[in-house]
User: What shape does this take?
Amino acid sequence: MNQLLTSILLILINYSHAQQSYNVYLVDHWTDTTLLKGAEDAIFSDLWGFKHNTDNYIALGSTEGTHILKIVNKKLIEIDFKEGKFSSLQVQHRDFKTYKNYLYGVCDEGPSSLQIFDLSTLPDSIHKVYDSSEYFQICHNIFIDTAKAKLYACGPDNVGMKVFDIQNPTQPQLIYTYTENNYVHDCYVTNDTAYLNCGFDGLTIYNFEPSLPQQLGLLDFYAGQGYNHSGWLTNDKKKYVFIDETKGKKVKICHIESLIDIEVSALYGTKNYENAVAHNVQLFNGFAFISYYNEGLRIVDIKTNTPKEVGFYDTFHQSTNYKLNGAWGVFVFEKEELIVVSDRQNGLFLCHFPIQLYRSLNNNTITSNTPFIDETSKIIYDSGETNPLTFSIYDLNGNHVYLKESFNDWINIPLTLSSGAYVYLIQNYFGDVVSTGKFIKGN
Assistant: This one.
C-alpha cells in the first residue's frame, strides 16, 4: 500500500519545481520587494487565514504592517494594507488571530500596540477600530479561545501572559495576569484549557476557567528538549504536537492519555534535522503541517505509529548559514486543501496537498465528488486559455495511461480505460500544473 500511495501522489507535484517539492504543488506566490528589509533581508513574519462570508483571506505581517490578501480563483490578491504602530526594518514578529468579524494583531518590537481591525467591510477593505498600548507595547503571540471569548497575549512586554475578555470585541478587558512562568512564548487554548509553551521551562497546561487558574499538567523535562516554542492540538484532543525552536531538535508528538502524565511518544525531523530548526505547526485530519524555516513546508502523517513525511515544498533557496530564515508561518484551509506558508524573505506561498485523496487511499477506499463516468463524460478546465493544455491520466499504480494536448479546455474520457479509479492532471502551455482531480470509471 505504501508503494501505491507514493506512486499516486507523486503525480501531483509541481513539475516546474521537481527538485523543490514532493506531493505538494505551488498554486500561487505573492511578495512585495519594496518593503523595508531587515537582517538577512527578512521582510515577512507570521500569518493567519480566515473566512469572511464565503471567501478565504490571509493576514500577513511584514516589517511595515499588516497585509490583507484574498484568494481569488486560486490567486493571491492584496486588497488592503494597514501600517503598524511601529513600522521599521527592526520588526521581526507580527502575529494575528480572528474573533467574529475582527482581526487582532500584535508586534514584538518597538513602541507597538494591540491593534483591532473590523472585517465587516470586506472584500473592499478593513478598518482599524482599536490601537492601544494600554495593556502592553510588545507581544510575541496571541491566541483566541473563541468558545470562551478570551484573548491570550503571550510575552506582553516580555513578562508572563495576559488574559483578556473580548465579549465586546473592540474593548478588551484584562481579567488575569499570569506570572507562574516568567515568560510564555506561545499557547494553544480550547475551552479554557491552555497549553503554554514556556521556552526553556518546557510545556505547562492550565485551566483558566476559575478565578484562580489551576495547573493540569507539566512537561518540564523530556528527551531532545530545547526551547519550547509553539504547539497545536488535534480536534479530538488526543494528540498534541509541539516544536522546540532549537537547532537539531526534532518535533515532538504527544499521545494524550492524561494531562497530568503528558509525555512525548514520537519524534519527527527532516533528513537534515541536525542542521535545521522547526518553527510553527497546525494539525488537521491526522497531518502535521510544519513551517520548518530553511527546510520549507513539511507535511507529516501523524496517524501512523512512526510519523511519516508525506509531502514538502521548499520556499527558501537562498544560500545562508543562518538557520532561522525561510518558512515562518503556516495556515491550512482544509476544505479547499490549500496550505499558505509565509517565508521571511520570499513572501506568501499558496500550495495544494490532496488531503482527502491521501486519506481515502490510505484507508484502501476511493471517494469522489463526481459520479461514475461513462463514455459521455469529460474532464473540463474552464480556463479561457488560448494556448494548448496538456491532459494526463494516471492509474492507481502510477502508470501514465493517457496523454493529450488540446486547444480545447476539455477532453472526453477515453473509452479504452478499464473500469476503476484514476487521477488526472492538467498542465498549461508553460508546464505548470493548473488542476488535478480524481474520477471513477464504471464498467
Notes: The radius of gyration is 23 Å. Helices lie at 2-10, 355-362.
